[in-house]
Amino acid sequence: MKRREFIRVSSLLGAGAAVAPSFMLSGCAAKPLPGSGAVTSTPTVCDMCFWKCAGHVYRENGEIWKITGNPDDLHSGGRLCTRGTGGPGAYLDPDRLKQPLMRVTDADGRQRFQEVTWDVALDFIADKMRGIAETVGPERMLMLHHGSGSRHFVHLLRAYGSNSRAEPAFAQCRGPRDVGFRLTVGESVSSPERTDMANARCIVFLGCHIGENLHNAQVQTMAEAINRNATLITVDPRFSVPAGKSQYWLPIKPGTDMALLLSWMNVLIDEGLCDQDYIERYTVGFEQLAAHVRPYTPEWVYLETGIKPDVIRETAREMAKAAPATVVHPGRHATWYGDDTQRSRAVAILNALLGSWNRKGGFYIPESVDLPEYPLPDYPTPKAQTADAYPGKWPFASQGVTNGAIEASIGEDAFFKGWLVYGTNLPQSVPNVEEKLKAAANTLDLLVVVETMPSEMTGYADVILPECTYLERYDDLRNSGEREPSLALRMPAFEPRYDSKPGWWIAKQLGSRLGLDEYFPWQDYSEKLDWQLKQVGSSLEEMQRIGVKNFPRQSPLYFRPGERVQFRTPSRKIELYSKQLADQGFDPMPVYTPPDPVPNGYYRLNYGRMPAHTFGKTTNNPLLFELTPENQLWVNPLVASQWSLSSGDYVRLASPAGAISNPVRVRVTERIGPDSVFMAHGFGHKSKRLRLTAGVGADDAGLMSNIKIDPLMGGTGMRANFVTFVQQRAKSS
């Protein structure tokens, strides 16, 4: 195939100038007042972030009015966050992908996207997939994905013969946390996190921005803890939202969290503050750990972290005083400095010393509904797995590693020959990746993108398939592990707009073209859901009425007093000392390594979240854009004075590798130290078809060139990057 050019979808559809939200939603402007017409409602499960809160979609005279939380949903407490109530913007966004598009080459050799029918697009994809299966094997077809809607395509590829897949949510977000906890206690902290903050008497946050990330139930249970006067300890170089709610704010030097965690262990052990009965009953390696942390005295760690010794001791005592009702929160985005699995192990070990794992006020034992799988043929056994694409690397990766899979798709000897990309915008999700994406696109025989919006990733595709939004489709039942088991239904409130289609339909149509009809026996996905619901005493008809069905627990929420349990580790206990790490040549206990020093004239690039947006997924949403149209750059007053910056000015940033950002608005604040700057992730889009957000704000991922790879699971540590200021302009009017 001719080398693929990056094509902006706007070259077909016309970008135009950015349009104000009031114009974009003008179809609603002249209608009667909300609530004055005939109102109906439909249950849904929100897809504005991964939290998946249940709600109701209200329609007035058949048109969308609002979305509210389902009061029976224990998962969300019956409330939706800002983004959840902004769901109508996703449905109404005029920049949505509207029809299948295929890459074509004109007579002059220029490439562009052309509108095609679904039959043409799906026939082309199926033909290419058959060719890959026949020449190199189906397992050479890779899926890169994010979101619950991807399950339809995971099912398709497994039926096709491939279990090759990876998602940035693992290697670029929570993977080190999940692997670190599995290595220590034998299981992950789940999603949603199994923290029992509502009953906690002490909560410790390490760079965890609850209240800014709006993880719904976590925010609510943190608020409950605050109302009960729980002690909050926040460790963050920035005065974040949880820092503002805390009795203790520890403005740590970036990159030294591991030293603080080891020092807290030192204090707990040295002062006899550990839960000794819990340690003797449930753990192995305590003596090795005690010897290991002895050098990490608060006095020594003060020199590394900037946290005074008396504060280290006082906060350790606060944790012990509240234990076992103490949560050292595991966080979510954990890819920081390359030692991230070990840092997450340190968090798990600290919780074990406090006796909080599976204890009231610490962590609970999640339970989901025992929901039978729909009876289908067994999947064929692939001849290779994702990890075979990068043999010998990252031995503890429990999922495919995105960055490894991308690199294994480049060159004549590339392992992967085709990609199906679902719901993930790789240019903003994976750091320093654009050149690799171009190289991979020029290697692959097939690159398909399934999306609702014309993200940057669509520019690399051979075929773009427009999926309808979550308000227009059925997906799998929500059955996440919770305090109480429950099921929630997402069903279409509207017919798909334009020529978009639900993911289950796209997967079924491709499956039929690939001769896989036996794996897709339903005519409509509701048939599968109805069968599953009837196995647990419900039905689709019931769920269409109530949306959420709660079930009684079948097992205890916490360990019983004195209970003997077996953990899913080799020793069947919590492993403070990890023999499986030692056997693979890794440190059996976490070790502190100082972070790279800040180059002269540069500042650490700190990044995070904001309440109105789920990263770049929602920045073009016209309702949420109106709330927060751009990110801001937090700059300490001392730094601002040196560079003659004021709040409201715009400045460009440069990395040591020479990357330069879009202009970003300055916010001068003492809430960040003089060694760092901070911005929210998800801005700086390059796709001009995203008419509201294109070119607005700065993209932190584009400034990242110093990536620290976690040797245990392949995660991309992204907090070892630095920026400086290269250009300013006057503040806007």
List the keywords.
733 residues; 29% helix; alpha/beta; Dimethylsulfoxide Reductase, domain 2; single chain; Rossmann fold; six-stranded mixed beta sheet; Barwin-like endoglucanases
Verbal overview:
The chain has 24 helices and 26 strands. It has 733 residues and is α/β, with parallel strands linked by helices. Among the domains are: 1-31 and 98-167 and 400-466, Rossmann fold, CATH 3.40.50.740; 176-365 and 567-583, Dimethylsulfoxide Reductase, domain 2 (3-Layer(aba) Sandwich); 603-729, Barwin-like endoglucanases (Beta Barrel), CATH 2.40.40.20. Strands 5-4-15-14-13-6-7 form a seven-stranded mixed sheet. It is globular. The model is unreliable at 13-29 (pLDDT under 50).
Low-confidence stretches: 13-29
End-to-end distance: 49 Å
The class by helix and strand makeup works out as: alpha/beta
The total of beta strands comes to 26
How would you summarize this macromolecular structure in one to three sentences?
The chain has 733 residues and is an alpha/beta fold. It contains 24 helices and 26 strands.
SSE blueprint and pairings:
Layout: H1 10-13, H2 21-24, E1 39-45, E2 54-60, E3 63-69, H3 82-85, H4 87-92, E4 101-105, E5 111-115, H5 118-135, E6 141-145, H6 151-160, E7 165-166, H7 168-185, E8 202-206, H8 216-227, E9 231-235, H9 241-244, E10 248-250, H10 257-270, H11 276-282, E11 283-284, H12 286-293, H13 298-305, H14 309-322, E12 326-328, H15 340-353, H16 402-407, E13 418-422, H17 426-429, H18 434-443, E14 446-451, E15 463-466, E16 486-488, H19 503-513, H20 525-535, H21 540-546, E17 548-550, E18 574-575, H22 579-583, E19 603-608, H23 622-627, E20 632-635, H24 637-642, E21 650-654, E22 664-668, E23 676-680, E24 708-709, E25 716-717, E26 722-729
Parallel strand pairs: 6-7, 6-13, 8-9, 8-12, 9-10, 11-18, 13-14, 14-15, 19-23, 20-22
Antiparallel strand pairs: 1-2, 2-3, 4-5, 4-15, 16-17, 19-26, 21-22, 21-26, 24-25
